[in-house]
């Protein structure tokens, strides 16, 4: 009936080969997990959708983040949003590494605003070991780039 005949064994072999290629390509990625009040806007200049976890290839990356959280003084208070401008995280990841971004404890609106002015966070791997990373504001990033150009 059909001009194309393929045996079940050839189909299974082709399917297995395709699946192994697909799985191999994803097995080298590192995973970046975020707290609820951080959102990734872009990775290496490429916009991303808002998910809790993001896959990164091994190597050096610049991750654009945005902080946002709501603070209420009492139960009757509807709350006040604290939002940052873009924050930039530079880090180098290894293959198949699972990383967690950890913010300092920010219990008040004043602490959140202080964090936005002078951001600090910790990046840890699956064993809880700190991973070298730097976070900076947009102004800090531009000043750093200009300093590198002048060298």
Automatic annotation (TrEMBL):
InterPro entries attached to this UniProt entry: UPF0319
Signal peptide: 1-29
Highest taxon, organism lineage: Bacteria
Keyword line: Signal
Family indicated by similarity: Belongs to the UPF0319 family.
Transmembrane segments: none
A UniProt-annotated Pfam family: DUF2057
Lineage, broadest ranks: Bacteria, Pseudomonadati, Pseudomonadota, Gammaproteobacteria, Alteromonadales
Protein name per the record: DUF2057 domain-containing protein
Species annotation: Shewanella chilikensis
């Amino acid at each position: 009936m059909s001009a194309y005949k393929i045996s079940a064994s050839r189909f299974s072999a082709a399917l297995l080969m395709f699946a192994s290629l697909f799985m191999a390509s994803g097995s080298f990625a590192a995973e970046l997990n975020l707290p609820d009040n951080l959102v990734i806007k872009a990775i290496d200049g490429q916009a991303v959708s808002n998910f809790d976890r993001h896959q990164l290839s091994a190597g050096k990356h610049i991750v654009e983040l945005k902080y946002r959280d709501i603070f209420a003084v009492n139960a009757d208070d509807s709350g006040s949003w604290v939002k940052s401008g873009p924050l930039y995280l530079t880090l180098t990841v290894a293959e198949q590494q699972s990383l967690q971004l950890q913010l300092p404890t920010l219990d008040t609106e004043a602490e959140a605003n202080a964090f936005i002015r002078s951001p600090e966070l910790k990046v840890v791997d699956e064993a809880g070991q700190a991973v070298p990373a730097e976070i900076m504001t947009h102004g800090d990033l531009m000043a750093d780039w200009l300093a590198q150009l002048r060298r």
